[in-house]
Here is the input.
Amino acid sequence: MHRWTPTSRRGLLALAAGSAIPAWALPTTTPAATSEIVIGQVAPLSGVLASTGEQMVLGGKIYFDAINAKGGIHGARIRTDVVDDQYKVDDTLRLTRDLLARPEVVALYGFAGTANVGKLLSEGVLEAGGAALVAPYTGGESLRNPLNPWIFHVRAGYADEAEHMVRQAHTLGMTRIAVMYQDDAFGKAGLLGVENALTKRGLKLAAAAGYERNTDQVEDAVQKIKASDAQAVIMISINKPTAAFVKRYRELGGGAQLYNISVVDPGELVKLAGLKNAHGLGISQVVPYPYMPTLPVIREYQTLLARHAPGQPVNYTSFEQFLGAKVLVEALRRAGPAPTRAKVIKALESMGNYDLGGVSVGYSPANRVGSRFVDVKVIGSAGKLMR
Here is the structure.
């Protein structure tokens, strides 16, 4: 397990010498502050979701670094203590309990995985700790309905994404739609979203095939979906199994239009599946296109990425978590000096319609879903998402 503690640069340098910790993850050297605000983050920094986890951490880090460079919040620097759960539910549970056992941790930020975060709810970990979890990297409906007071979502839900993808496919005349999904809470949430969207249109699934979590063993799913003669395949899956499915399905002559939910990295898919196979793949997105500076918040993100993580590319995941960091920082400002867990929650609830710079989120005591924005982008012939 990697434990990234931004106040211990010497320790991180030693770790980096013998591990895969990227240079941008090392803390920025700034003058010592008289106080700190400690944020806890559990992220998949190794295992099947490692590339996504790195981008999640990066998006928050560049904004927190920028705030610290300006003197912090009410004179206190932000410190993010980041630990690696390898995308394993039991590790998420244990590490979150460890973080919440420390009174100085005033909020949680940017976890990944519907099953992982769902376990925190079912085990009462967030309730016992009394801390907000801001911007988890999941759209699971069970984390949104019924309302729970601890999780503040920045992204749209998987049901919103599924509706958007089914609507697009149906508009293009496709009626035979199949689903390839991760066989856990994440995958089943997306599967249910597709089924509901199809039912609204009087359609039924052409096929549904799952694969085991934390593997990329998708051969059975490929064979089942190929045999269904689907016109479109919606994948509720992460990078490696998605790439494995796309590559094998195309090699076998599968010609359906392929879609994937937003949790994948298009660059990683092209690298793993090959451009020939990934070309034309549609990916739902829950934040605006970050590659062109069309909005003030995108210009801010691109500027801070270049300043605090030079050489790192623009990425949907890091941009999403950048937005989440902005939400959390605003809540910390509103919470006042010496924020507590309860004050942070109350501050988040006061953000009824907050403009992040051309992207708005809204929360209240009765609402924890900040945005329902969804768009679909396609991997073009150059291996990049087309605007």
